[in-house]
Design brief:
Oligomer: single chain
Number of helices: 10
Order of helices and strands: HEEHEHEHEHHEHEHEEEHEHEEE
Shape: elongated
Strand content: 15-25%
Largest sheet: 9 strands, mixed
Number of domains: 2
Helix content: 25-40%
CATH topology of the largest domain: Dihydrofolate Reductase, subunit A
């Protein structure tokens, strides 16, 4: 039976894991807390970067000899294979840990089995403590393993009546400085930031993370099917972070840096590129989470393809009455086809409201 101390330690491990968001891909985010034989916290750690020590190793180093006879609380099942680092199951055994509690089983077929290895060696092992919370914190990696594509979070900023710009296309600034700063947090937690040709042409965005010390810059991606929106000297091509410009296989892209061009097949129906091919190419490059920032046409294509896993909308207390909407054609022609969402959070950000929602399970009658 899980005790209050178990729950406190695991919740701390979940908090620690979140510190690795944006810097661990293609690996998951993982947190670990080690308590000694008396139940006092002896060490803690989190996976900080791909190729670096795992959370368990950081925590064991901090705990030292106090780990012997103690308990390890880990948000993800300790790995059981040798990659760029050694197996964490063996590290826990070598440290003399007598009990391991992990929240979520490792879905990676190459790494799973750590729990069985520990049990076979006589360690007491328990799984499932705060599993929902731990899974929510690691949802991008888990989604990528389950679906074989990156997790996609669509973010938009709009007026209360759903407009992302005025009728004359002016849009700076609809939301507050506080909301814009919060978007940089989302960028810092993502592996890649994605925009379409309309946004690139209108805003010439730089797409880097600003105002967050130590942030890992995400890969910047522009879907520019005909290679006409991103010009030589565009801000997205600066040295801040790596960039990919996704273009059609037959598009003339000689004006772009060769190493920045990602050629993809065109969509089988309608304009644009094959989104499955785009996501597959990103997944192959180790991208496990994508922040889709715009614009409405690209967002509509992702919604129509069923590739949006979460929506974060920043709503400003402003009315325009005209101008482009946040979402363009998404293949929905009648109310019965509407994509229903479950709101998971509403938070005031300065004068604005941040609404977070996920696609709802299919309901009878829809």
């Amino acid at each position: 039976m899980d005790t209050a101390a178990d729950i406190t330690a695991m919740r701390r491990a979940i908090t620690l894991a979140a510190r690795g968001l944006g810097s661990t891909s293609p690996n998951p985010v993982v947190g670990c807390v080690i308590t000694d034989a008396a139940g006092a916290v002896a060490g803690e750690g989190f996976h900080q970067r791909a190729g670096g020590p795992h959370a368990e190793v950081h925590a064991l180093r901090a705990a030292g000899d106090r780990a012997r006879g103690g308990t390890a609380y880990v948000t993800l099942e300790p790995c059981n294979h040798t990659g760029r680092t050694g197996p964490c199951a063996q590290a826990l055994l070598a440290a003399g840990i007598s009990r391991v509690v992990y929240a979520v089983g490792d879905l990676n077929p190459q790494a799973t089995g750590g729990g069985d290895t520990l049990r076979a060696a006589g360690v007491q092992v328990a799984q499932g403590l705060l599993a929902d919370e731990a899974e929510a914190g690691n949802t991008a990696w888990l989604t990528s393993v389950r679906l074989g594509r990156p997790y996609v979070l669509w973010k938009y900023a709009a007026t209360l009546d759903g407009r992302i710009a005025a009728a004359d296309r002016t849009s700076r600034w609809i939301t507050s400085p506080e909301a814009r700063a919060d978007v940089h947090r989302l960028r810092a937690e993502a592996d890649a930031v994605l925009v379409g040709s309309g946004t690139a042409r209108t805003d010439d965005p730089q797409l880097g993370v600003r105002g967050i010390d130590g942030a890992t810059q995400p890969l910047r991606i522009v879907v520019d099917t005909n290679a006409t929106a991103v010009k030589s000297g565009a801000r997205v091509l600066d040295a801040t972070a790596p960039t990919l410009v996704a273009v059609a296989e037959d598009a003339p892209a000689g004006h772009l840096p060769e190493d920045a061009v990602l050629r993809l097949p065109r969509a089988a129906t309608g304009p644009g590129l094959d989104l499955d091919a785009l996501l597959e190419a990103l997944h192959t490059r180790g991208v496990r989470s994508v922040l889709l920032e715009g614009g409405p046409t690209l967002a509509g294509a992702f919604v129509a393809a069923g590739k949006v896993d979460k929506v974060v909308g920043y709503l400003a207390p402003v009315l325009l009455g005209a101008g482009p909407a946040a979402l363009a054609d998404a293949g929905i022609s009648t109310i019965s086809q509407a994509l229903r969402l479950d709101v998971t959070e509403t938070v005031a950000i300065g004068p604005d409201l941040r609404v977070t929602a996920v696609p709802a399970p299919a309901r009878k009658g829809n």
